[in-house]
């Protein structure tokens, strides 16, 4: 005997669609479509008739079910306008990425939900989100097919073989990975996966994956894996070596000192105001690579107090920037843009 593998509401929707088609389906044909036994279909028909008010009748001449009232609709999904707005905004958030992973699927789902709300609420989805939008600087190109393949592998825990380009070495390598998690960090997507070549979990940018294929093998994800714990020592996505630990203290003056504390830049952040309006931000990090660039981005309004290693790196970078501009009058002598 076949087991009912679909959720009850999924079966009700499929049964409603079959009856509404006018093909006069019966328990046998519906059961074959849904891969459930005849007895399950009969119970579903009874439930829809008695509990949902469905006007289902059986035509013996045609050996199938039909609706005696054409205007019947399954009860609408209960959803507030605010909840629908949240979904619309989620779709717009996905849309900002070229290739829009899951964007079209989410847009279709939202449209179906809006239509299923019936006459109780009349909503124009375009007007609903007109006052809200998302903007990302330099959105990356993402292949929707690749993204779906990665998401499926994460969900079904399937090992993948992929060809990956590493920009620091400008080379492609082939490796097998166990995909644990897909994460969007600061507007960029990353795949966290156990790399069998390196023997540890690594982060991969989907935009750098040149080819991917299922190996046919599956894996068990570690029970204790949590993305926030995995990235605990990273200011963004660079975690550093396991044995690395840095206490970072940056001092901000001027305009940045007045508003930087309004945001949490890292879970370990601690803020302290000085007597002259300066702001000290402290972090516990496993890598200095990203915090160095972040400190430099604030120019003279940011001073590295500790660690000494980071201070020296920022000084060296600033001196290199000065040498690059030395002797130039701003007219430029390189190729025009």
The amount of beta strand, in percent, is: 15-25%
Give the number of DSSP strands: 11
Structural class: alpha+beta
Low-confidence stretches: 1-5, 118-122
Calculate the mean pLDDT score and round it.
84
- Using only C-alpha atoms, the radius of gyration works out to 28 Å
Order of helices and strands: HHHEEHHHHEEEEEHEHEEHEH
Keywords:
four-stranded antiparallel sheet; five-stranded antiparallel sheet; 337 residues; alpha+beta
Short description:
The chain contains 11 helices and 11 strands.
Describe what you observe in this structure.
The protein has 337 residues and is of the alpha+beta class. The protein is built from 11 helices and 11 strands. Strand 5 and strand 6 form a beta hairpin. Helix 1 crosses helix 3, helix 4 packs antiparallel against helix 5 and helix 10 packs across helix 11. The longest helix is centred in the last third of the chain and has 18 residues. The N and C termini lie far apart (70 Å).
Topology:
Layout: H1 8-20, H2 27-34, H3 38-50, E1 56-59, E2 64-67, H4 81-95, H5 103-116, H6 125-128, H7 144-156, E3 158-166, E4 171-185, E5 188-195, E6 200-204, E7 209-218, H8 227-230, E8 246-252, H9 254-259, E9 270-273, E10 279-285, H10 289-297, E11 302-306, H11 308-325
Antiparallel strand pairs: 1-2, 3-4, 3-7, 4-5, 5-6, 8-10, 8-11, 9-10
Helix pairs in contact: 1-3, 2-3, 4-5, 10-11
């Amino acid at each position: 005997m076949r087991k009912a593998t679909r959720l009850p509401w999924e079966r009700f929707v499929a049964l409603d669609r079959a009856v509404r088609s006018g093909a006069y389906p019966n328990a046998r044909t519906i059961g074959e479509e849904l891969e459930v036994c005849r007895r399950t279909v009969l119970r579903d028909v009874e439930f829809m008739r008695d509990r949902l008010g469905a006007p289902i009748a059986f035509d013996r001449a045609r050996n199938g079910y039909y609706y005696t009232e054409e205007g019947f609709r399954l009860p609408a999904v209960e959803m507030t306008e605010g909840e629908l707005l949240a979904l619309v905004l989620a779709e717009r958030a996905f849309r900002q990425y070229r290739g829009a992973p899951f964007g079209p699927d989410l847009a279709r789902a939202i449209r179906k939900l809006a239509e299923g709300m019936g006459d109780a609420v009349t909503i124009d989805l375009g007007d609903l989100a007109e006052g809200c939008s998302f903007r990302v600087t330099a959105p990356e190109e993402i292949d929707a097919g690749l993204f779906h393949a990665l998401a499926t592998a994460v969900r079904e825990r399937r090992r993948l073989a992929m060809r990956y380009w590493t920009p620091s070495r400008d080379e492609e390598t082939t490796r097998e990975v166990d995909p644990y998690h897909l994460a969007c960090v600061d507007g960029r997507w990353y795949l966290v996966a156990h790399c069998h070549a390196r023997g540890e979990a690594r982060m991969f940018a989907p935009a750098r994956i040149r080819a991917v294929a299922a190996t046919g093998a599956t894996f068990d994800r570690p029970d204790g894996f949590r993305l926030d714990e995995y990235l605990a020592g990273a200011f963004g996505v660079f975690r550093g070596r396991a044995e690395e630990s840095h206490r970072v203290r940056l001092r901000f003056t001027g305009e940045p000192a007045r508003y930087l504390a309004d945001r949490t830049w890292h879970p370990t952040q601690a803020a302290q105001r000085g007597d002259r309006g300066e702001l000290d931000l402290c972090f516990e990090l496993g890598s200095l690579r990203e915090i160095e660039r972040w400190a430099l981005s604030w120019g003279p309004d940011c001073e590295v107090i500790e660690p000494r290693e980071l201070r020296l790196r920022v000084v060296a970078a600033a001196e290199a920037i000065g040498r690059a501009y030395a002797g130039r009058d701003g007219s430029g002598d390189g190729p025009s843009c």
